[in-house]
Structures are given as C-alpha cells and as structure tokens.
C-alpha cells in the first residue's frame, strides 16, 4: 500500500535549521508584509533579509574569505582522501565557509591522524565519534 508514496521534499541536504527570537512588533511587521503579498511566508521574508545583508557586505566577506584562506561552498572528505593524506605523512588544516562533511566510514582514529585543525563557518557533518575526536582541534 505504501509503494506509491513519493517523498516531496528530501530530508537533510543543503540547509541547516536555525531558531531565532523576534519581538512581537517585528513579527507583526513581517506578518503584515506576508499578508500584503510581498513575501510568501515568514521564512521567505527572513531568507530574503539574510541574503540582502550578505550581499550588502559581500566585498568585506570576499576579502575575509581570501585573508583566511577559506574554501567557499561544500568540501567533502572521503575515507580514501584521508588515507591518501595519511600515506603521504601529512596533516590537513581544514578551513571552510559553508559545509564541511566527513564521510560516515571515516574512523575517529583516521580523522585524528590526518586533521590537524578544523575551522568551519557554517555546518560540519560528521559522525559523532569523529566530531568528538576532533573537538579539541575545532576553531
């Protein structure tokens, strides 16, 4: 009977859920703009406001990304990537603005042996064991 069920929106993916607190007056203003058709819903308003602020400060952000030598976007590390680093006797300094992900089959020991430092502005996806192993190396 459930063979014909189609998932409308895949779980996980390219966003992270956050929670914010707003004053009643600010929330009322947002609701008014939504009711008047300027935005589809509260989330649409908030996303638009955030994107406008990011665009407003785009040049400063670009300079900061360059100064800090950050990888921009998504950076994924597989077990094979880290094993190659380990075989070369090297260690990684990972700096990402966006999403850094470490494959689920990467062990805590391999992560500890190959990742010297980890700085993520955005989100880090990794197993709980890997996150715990790298906790002291997170900046």
UniProtKB/TrEMBL annotation:
InterPro entries: RHH_8, Ribbon_hlx_hlx
CDD domains: RHH_NikR_HicB-like
Protein name: CopG family transcriptional regulator
């Amino acid at each position: 009977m459930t063979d014909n069920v189609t998932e409308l929106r895949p779980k996980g993916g390219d966003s992270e859920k956050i929670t914010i607190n707003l004053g009643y007056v600010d929330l009322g203003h947002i609701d008014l703009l939504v009711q008047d058709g300027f935005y589809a819903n509260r989330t649409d308003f908030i996303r638009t406001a955030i994107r406008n602020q990011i665009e407003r400060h785009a040049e400063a952000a670009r300079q900061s990304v360059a100064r800090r030598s950050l990888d921009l976007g998504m950076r994924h590390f597989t077990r094979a990537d880290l094993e190659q680093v380990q075989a070369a006797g090297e260690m990684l300094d990972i700096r990402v603005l966006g999403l850094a992900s470490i494959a689920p089959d990467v062990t805590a020991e391999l992560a500890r042996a190959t990742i010297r430092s980890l700085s993520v502005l955005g989100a880090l996806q990794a197993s709980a064991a890997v996150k715990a192993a790298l906790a002291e190396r997170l900046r």
